Amino acid sequence: MDLGTATTIQLISDSGYYAGVAIIPGLKTAAAHLFEHAALLSEVKLEVPAFLLGNNTHDALLTGIVRGHALMIQAFIESIRSQYPDYAPCRVILTGGLAQIIKDLVPGDYILDSQLTLKGFHLALMTLMEQELR
């Protein structure tokens, strides 16, 4: 799962079969749209909110944007696990610029790997180089 401009949730089998993807507006994208279209709301720095519900506009925005996104992710993952049982056990790997913010709000078995995309590029490059040597 990549948490950047968009949040992408991808399902890949352990043998590398790509089952599909969901593309969801990312934290910053959704927040920017909200601030742009709600004249009385001021932009907030995205960070982990202290509580589930806010007692002021700032905290209410944080919990709605950040915790709401984390809850959406959890619900999506549970739906995937339910509808794609052949992929069990299913590991969830968080990556992308905003993954660190979400990590503390999702189940502990979700793995944070901020270098996952670079590792994938490296693996692809090594595979191509190996094929050229044959």
Describe the protein in words.
The protein is of the alpha+beta class. It has a single domain (2-133), classed as ATPase, nucleotide binding domain (Nucleotidyltransferase, domain 5). Helices cover 46% and strands 16% of the residues. The chain has four helices and five strands. It has a three-stranded antiparallel beta sheet. Strands 4-5 form a two-stranded parallel sheet. The model has no long low-confidence stretch (mean pLDDT 90).
Question: Outline of this structure?
Answer:
By secondary structure, the chain is α+β, with helices and mostly antiparallel strands.
Question: What key attributes describe this structure?
Answer:
134 residues, alpha+beta, Nucleotidyltransferase, domain 5, two-stranded parallel sheet, 4 helices, 46% helix, 16% strand
CATH topology: Nucleotidyltransferase, domain 5
Task: Provide the CATH architecture.
Answer: 2-Layer Sandwich
Task: Tell me the strand order in the biggest sheet.
Answer: 1-2-3
Question: Biggest sheet, in brief?
Answer: 3 strands, antiparallel
CATH homologous superfamily caption? ATPase, nucleotide binding domain
Provide a count of the helices.
4
The parts where pLDDT drops under 50 for at least 5 residues are: none
Class per helix and strand makeup: alpha+beta
* End-to-end distance: 34 Å
* Main CATH class: Alpha Beta
Report the radius of gyration as a whole number of Å.
Answer: 18 Å
Q: What is the global morphology?
A: elongated
Bin the strand percentage. 15-25%
Question: What average pLDDT do the residues reach?
Answer: 90
